[in-house]
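As noted in the main text, all predictions were made from sequence alone. Below is one such record, for Rhodopsin domain-containing protein.
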Amino acid sequence: VVSNGFCKHIWVGPPDATRDWALGLFTTEFTYTFSLMCIKLSILAFYWRIFSVQFIDKLLLGILAGMVGCWTVASILTSVFQCVPISALWQQFDPVHPTDPSTFTCGVNIHNLFIGKTVPHIVTDVLILLFPLPYIWNLHLRMSQKIATACIFMLGIFVLVVSIVRFVFVLQLNLESPDVTWDECAEMKWTGVEVYIGTVCGMPYHFPFSLQLWLINDSLSSILEAFVESHPTRKCSPEVA
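Prediction:
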């Protein structure tokens, strides 16, 4: 995308830079939403293994997972059908082969869409961060140990800070700017940073799942090796004329 003019002034990029920018924006909406969904659900799955002792714990975790799921579905559906036909989202920005405005309809304001996606995203982040604190507070530990344990679970606060910083850039975003490929550069960079930091901060929660995948793969490899050893390949002897 950078080679096609993104993060460059519009007069520096190729003629179809705005079309490529809009197409990249469309695909980023899916990868961004799906990545955050995986991070949130992996953390909630980790909480389920540790804190789901009582019914109320399972209920709260189920509600949080439902909120994440609803946010994901709503974000994806709104992103897909913000223009009819779907391709009009990027074709309307094509200066080389412009699309007739009478042939498409875009009923969703992209700027408002970004705000509508970011606010519930930040809210769910806050709720996920706060969920383990009451359990940690009730542990029979010294105050210093409680604080240290809480800090481990609060690693996601770095993601929350980045989300808020990105939200500030979203509020300042002007998608009708004639130099949109340059003006949106900062917001898109913070979008990438948010996903990267979220993945790194969520690695302690991903580890059990990754370990299970490794064990499954190791077991399948052992089964396959045993099967191959028990069924040796027959060597065909040459036929005697």
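Residues 10-221 form one domain. The chain has one domain: 10-221. These features were considered when defining construct boundaries for the mutagenesis experiments described in Section 2.9.
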